[in-house]
Specification:
The complex is a heterotrimer of chains A (about 325), B (about 325) and C (about 500). Chain A has about 325 residues and is mostly helical. Chain A has one domain: ABC transporter involved in vitamin B12 uptake, BtuC (Orthogonal Bundle), CATH 1.10.3470. The longest helix of chain A is centred in the C-terminal third of the chain and has 30 residues. Chain A starts with a helix and ends in an 8-residue tail after the last helix. The C terminus of chain A is likely disordered. With about 325 residues, chain B is mainly alpha-helical. Chain B has one domain: ABC transporter involved in vitamin B12 uptake, BtuC (Orthogonal Bundle). In chain B, about 75% of the residues lie in helices and about 0% in strands. In chain B, strands 1-2 form a two-stranded antiparallel sheet. In chain B, helix 1 packs across helix 14 and helix 9 packs across helix 11. The two termini of chain B are about 20 Å apart. Chain C is of the alpha/beta class and about 500 residues long. Chain C is built from 17 helices and 24 strands. Chain C has a six-stranded mixed beta sheet with strand order 6-9-10-3-11-12, with helices on both faces. The relative contact order of chain C is 0.11. The mean pLDDT of chain C is about 90. Classes of the chains: A mainly alpha (about 325), B mainly alpha (about 325), C alpha/beta (about 500).
Chain lengths: ~325, ~325, ~500
């Protein structure tokens, strides 16, 4: 029973959140809001999937939100100069993996720690984005923002995008050697190197993936918002970390999965904010709630880790006394 | 000294002299573009601007010394500033008319910073959570709380006696400089001449060995983060008085300045190394960079990018130093 | 008979201490060689040289007739030599199949060839009789099963020679029986096996030949049938007495300084009670993994107790922590000098003063000059030469250990717990440490001495308690000291002694 609860705690938590808000507000559990929730959750899910990947290798990517902004600003700039929308999107999206590779180089080859590198990037990339946008909000042409409302087989396009990204990452994580090796890297990089894993290459690819996810998440969110504001993407990395950890990823590395983990985690976080929104909560408390969610998720992660260490120790107990 | 290959360059860059050399090279390089930097007024402005940053960097150094980090700087500054202003402000402040208002409010601000710091330290020490996430939550929560309390508005109308004192001079030297200098001396004495200082170093060098030697890791960790929080609160007092108002959304970039000043001043990101003198020069260097960017009329985004770049350089410098130290061991 | 592995005159020394002296070793394909010896006889060094962890100082190795000198474990593995370590190197967060093939997962354009991987894994797992789905996470396997996976990994990589290092320490009886069947199987398939163990009956049962190492020397070698357990024990002990242990000058005191009652910690220490009086040395003997170091950590408060009590000088410690026990005058020198002892990049005197800054301070304010004088005087009396402001990492092993002794001597401890105090220390420093220990007991310090060198225990201790599998299984008073009996007791062969 306890085991069931622990194994399925992410899903159970999501259900609890959904039930809680359904009781709290009659406007939460409606078909319209469900579509809203899924659409809003699309970019959060993409970002959380990338973050989960980084956490699995026992790193972290604090620059995700700023990178989103840089991609959005670049895309907006191009759209304003009448670049073909699709061209603009693809060109802007390329920024993501490029920045990711730069992070990967500094982390894997120069030996700097992931959080300090991506912390520097958190500011650097936002600065670059503000430079592109001249700190002004940019309205996007209708040709671009109409993608956000488009539906395919009755499902909004952003949800399709999120689905495809999750599918690809899920496949990479479970069905390729690279994906599996990342778990070894996160569990113990030195042991992984000894076991013949190319640790540096794995890290490079990981951060490139995270950058790509941030870029796609930015474009997805952009189609829905229709405008780039100077605060676009701010603090989104926190939501992503919270989502990843709520979905079962560990800040200590080696644990977590894109599907179902990151998806459930992201939907939980999205539901919380959607629910607060539906209940007309004071928007000023949102950062407090984010902080609380991240903290609780982390506390849970710490406890789970201790339990694992404990059970590993018990495993060593030998019934050998009689021998 | 510099002619001995990259290793000795890295080693030299880690010393106090290295920072001074860096500052001189920077000033000489930038001087053709903004000659004003060398004027007496500018030099003086750099000193005064460096003072609150020095306070922050010294606080950060405590966290870095034990191998941690404190990202909650901007949150503490915002919340402490707001708390102080809410007590003091003449339009509706809780203690507005009391004669004890100023000391009580200042004490409350420092206390708030200290308590928050100790709480973060406890989460790091006793729950064994990663420091950067704990303090990042702290930054979000406190920044959020400050905005929530004020509705996002700046709080002004602070009592004149306080502003005059902090902005004024004492013995022809700005009070703000006295405060920063005094704090630097206190930190130096604490680190070099007290049991606690030795224990902080020990924890940064090797936490396991420190524990076996009977040092209580929990208490020392709580102290380090408590000191960091208190320093941030002290900086909040200085910033609030200088701008004559408290802002609930203090710029997060200040964190970069604090970490940059500490690390460029020779503090190691992996613990066990700190130099108060180095941090003084580090804070001066960061301020010089900031002032020159302002003089060059650069935009906010350039400043942001430059500051991110400085941290990147500091992180690489630190990694290189570690490599050099490791190669020797 | 064409030997699979041939080692000639292997030599190895650490910091001037010779741990392997011209060891010869031969192993034919399809044979099991049992390697036995006391702790510190050189077995693990030999194994590390074979596995490419350490280079030999001198001598030659031939593998299938070609010169073999691995520079790292990867090279050794490529040549077909695999070591199955006591602590297993698996990733519990990955599946069995992934662990088996981590560096050469079969790929296809659409990803991992899962069926190929499954089939190959099943094939290898069948060779070690492990009937598990290859996609089971390793975290769900028992220790015994993990060991089988480790063996399977070696087989999958095409090993010709597998070295087992104490493989049965954490196995249940049926698991061990299964392991022996597999080793038999490996032998039948023409692989060479080196089997290192303290379980002498297992060694005699499994091995074709047995090699006894003693003090780094090949003491005896011959077919297993030629040995009996008592004969093996006789060959194992008898290290050259190159130390004169200083005589005690003061009588043992009356006061019980350290008392443990029914101390337990799940998985490592099981219901242990002991007491040490002032001026007394209680030695703890036992084989690796018997729970001796873990007991020391419990007594000092480094790990939490699951049950039992710790009393210091009559005061009960409800929850012992290092900070509390140190305050009560207890000191611990662990076996892991690098991680638990030294601040490697800090200066020698900072290292020496680490535990006693408080004693050299007034209300938290250091008397730095007095502290430095005390450190200098202590360094003088322990003959730690050189400047005290250089980093401790530059000192020799012996001097590093003396610096840690100095750290605790400066506190004048009432009770000193020593875990392998002379490991990795040269001969001269060893003698000094023995004299130091005696000086302390003469001054009334109670000492709990853990050592793998029986000579050291018998030479210094007043009583020797023996641990096996987490329990106290015997105690010897000084009058009944007998190397053979102590070793037999530690090996679980009391009946023979």
């Amino acid at each position: 029973m306890t085991r069931f609860l622990v194994n399925h705690s992410p899903a159970l938590l999501l259900v609890a959140v959904l039930i809680g808000f359904s009781i709290g507000s009659p406007r939460f559990l409606t078909p319209q809001n469900a579509v809203n929730l899924l659409t809003q959750g699309a970019s959060a899910t993409i970002l959380a999937a990338g973050m989960t990947w980084v956490l699995v290798t026992s790193g972290v990517d604090l620059s995700a939100g700023s990178l989103m902004f840089l991609v959005a600003a670049a895309c907006g700039k191009m759209l304003q100069s009448d670049v073909e929308p699709l061209m603009a999107a693809v060109a802007a999206a390329a920024i993501g993996p490029l920045c990711g590779v730069a992070h990967g180089m500094l982390i894997a080859y120069a030996g700097a720690s992931p959080f300090i590198v991506t912390l520097a990037s958190l500011f650097l990339l936002r600065g670059a984005g503000l430079w592109f946008s001249r700190t002004r909000a940019m309205n996007l042409p209708e040709a671009f923002s109409r993608w956000g409302a488009e539906k395919l087989l009755g499902v909004p396009l952003p949800v399709w995008v999120a689905g495809v990204v999750v599918l690809v990452l899920y496949w990479l994580q479970t069905h390729t050697a690279f994906g599996r090796q990342c778990y070894a890297v996160g569990y113990d990089p030195a042991a992984a190197r000894k076991a013949g894993v190319h640790v540096r290459a794995a890290l490079m690819k990981t951060y490139a993936l995270s950058g790509a996810c941030a870029a796609i998440a930015a474009l997805t969110a952009l189609t829905q918002l229709g405008a780039v504001s100077p605060t676009f993407g701010k603090d989104r990395e926190f939501d992503a970390i919270a989502a990843a950890v709520l979905g079962g990823a560990s800040l200590f590395g080696g644990r977590g999965n894109v599907f179902p983990g990151a998806v459930i985690g992201a939907m939980t976080v999205a539901s919380v904010f959607n629910g607060l929104n539906v209940m007309n909560a004071n928007p000023y408390v949102y950062p407090l709630i984010t902080a609380a969610v991240v903290f609780l998720a982390m506390l849970f992660d710490g406890l789970r880790r201790r339990q694992l260490v404990q059970s590993a120790r018990t495993m060593r107990w030998n019934v050998e006394g009689a021998r | 000294m510099i002619a001995g290959g990259p290793r000795s360059v890295v080693r030299f860059a880690a010393t106090e002299l290295g920072v001074v050399a860096l500052a001189i090279v920077y000033v000489l390089a930038i001087l053709p573009f903004c000659p004003e930097l060398a004027t007496r007024d500018q030099a003086f402005a750099a000193l005064v601007n460096a003072a609150p940053l020095l306070v922050l960097a010294l606080g950060q150094a405590f966290a870095l010394l034990i191998g941690g980090i404190d990202l909650s700087v901007s949150g503490v500054i915002s919340l402490a500033g707001v708390v102080g202003a809410m007590l003091l402000t003449s339009d509706g402040g809780v203690l507005a008319d009391s004669s004890l208002a100023i000391p009580v409010a200042l004490l409350a601000m420092l206390l708030m910073g200290g308590v928050v710091g100790v709480a973060q330290g406890a989460a790091v020490a006793y729950w064994e959570l990663p420091a950067f996430i704990v303090t990042m939550c702290g930054m979000m929560a406190m920044g959020g709380a400050a905005v929530w309390l004020t509705g996002g508005a700046r709080l002004g109308s602070l009592p004149l006696p306080l502003l005059e004192t902090v902005q004024g001079d004492w013995l022809r030297v700005p009070v703000i400089l006295w405060v920063a200098t005094a704090l630097a001396i206190v930190c130096y004495l604490l680190l070099q001449h007290t049991v606690l200082g030795k224990h902080l170093y020990a924890l940064g060098h090797n936490a396991r060995a420190a524990r076996v030697a009977g040092i209580s890791l929990g208490r020392v960790t709580c102290f380090a983060y408590g000191a960091s929080g208190t320093c941030s609160a002290l900086a909040a007092i200085l910033y609030t008085c200088r701008t004559e108002s408290a802002t609930p959304s203090f710029a997060r970039e200040i964190l970069l300045d604090a970490i940059g000043a500490a690390v460029i001043g020779g503090t190691s990101l992996s613990g066990g190394r700190v130099s108060v003198m180095g941090i003084v020069f580090g804070a001066l260097f960061i301020t010089l960079v900031g002032n020159s960017l302002t003089l060059l009329n650069l935009d906010y985004w350039h400043v942001l990018m430059a500051k991110g770049g400085v941290i990147l350089v500091a992180a690489l410098l630190d990694a290189a130093r570690r490599g050099v130290a490791g190669g020797r061991a | 008979m064409n030997p699979l592995l041939e080692c000639r005159k292997i030599r190895k020394a650490f910091a001037g201490v010779r741990v392997l002296k011209d060891v010869d070793l031969q192993l034919a394909s399809g044979q099991v060689l049992g390697l036995v010896g006391e702790n510190g006889a050189g077995k693990s060094t030999m194994m590390n040289i074979l596995g490419g962890v350490l280079p030999a100082d001198d001598g030659a190795m031939l593998l299938s007739g070609t010169p073999y000198a691995p520079r790292n474990p990867a090279q050794a593995a490529a040549a077909g030599v695999r070591i199955v370590h006591q602590e297993l190197n698996l990733f519990p967060n990955l599946s069995v199949a992934e662990n088996l093939f981590l560096d050469r997962i079969p790929r296809a354009p659409w990803g991992i060839r899962r069926t190929t991987l499954s089939n190959q894994s099943r094939e290898i797992l069948r060779q070690v009789n492990l009937d598990r789905d290859p996609w089971t996470p390793v975290a769900q396997l028992s220790t015994g099963e993990r060991q089988l996976v480790e063996i399977a990994k070696a087989l999958g990589a095409g090993a010709k020679l597998i070295v087992f290092d104490e493989p049965t320490t954490s196995l249940t009886q049926p698991e061990a029986a299964r392991l022996f069947a597999i080793i038999d199987n490996l032998r039948g398939r023409g692989l060479g096996v080196i089997y290192i163990s303290h379980q002498l009956d297992d060694v005699l049962r499994l091995a074709n030949d047995v090699l006894v190492l003693r003090d780094g020397v090949r003491q005896a070698c011959g077919p297993a049938q030629a040995f009996t357990i008592p004969l093996l024990i006789q060959q194992m002990i008898g290290r050259e007495l190159d130390h004169v242990f200083p005589e005690r000058r003061a009588a043992i005191g009356e006061e019980i300084v350290l008392q443990l009652r029914n101390v337990s910690r799940r998985g490592v220490v099981d219901d242990v009670s002991l007491e040490v009086r002032s001026g007394e040395i209680l030695g703890i003997a036992g084989m690796m993994g018997a729970g001796r170091s873990e007991l020391a950590r419990l007594a000092f408060g480094l790990d939490p107790l699951d049950a039992g009590t710790v009393q210091l000088g009559g005061d009960m410690l409800a929850v012992p922590t290092p900070a509390r026990t140190v305050k009560k005058g207890v000191a611990l020198i662990t076996e892991d000098r690098r991680d638990d002892g030294l601040l490697l990049n800090a200066s020698v005197d900072d290292n020496m003063l680490l535990a006693s800054w408080r004693d050299h301070a007034c209300a938290g304010w250091l008397r730095r000059r007095a502290a430095k004088r005390a450190a200098a005087a202590m360094a003088d009396s322990l003959k730690i030469g050189g400047a005290l402001d250089r980093p401790v990492v530059q000192l020799s092993g012996g001097n590093q250990q003396k610096a840690i002794f100095a750290r605790w001597l400066l506190r004048k401890p009432r009770c000193l717990i020593l875990d392998e105090p002379t490991r990795g220390v040269d001969v001269g420093a060893k003698d000094e440490i023995y004299r130091l220990i005696r000086r302390l007991t003469d001054a009334g310090t109670a000492i709990l001495l853990i050592s793998s060198e029986i000579e050291e225990l018998l030479g210094l201790a007043d009583r020797v308690a023996v641990m096996r599998a987490g329990r106290m299984v015997g105690e010897f008073a000084r009058a009944e000291f007998d190397r053979e009996r102590v070793l037999a007791c530690a090996l679980g062969q009391e009946a023979l002694a």
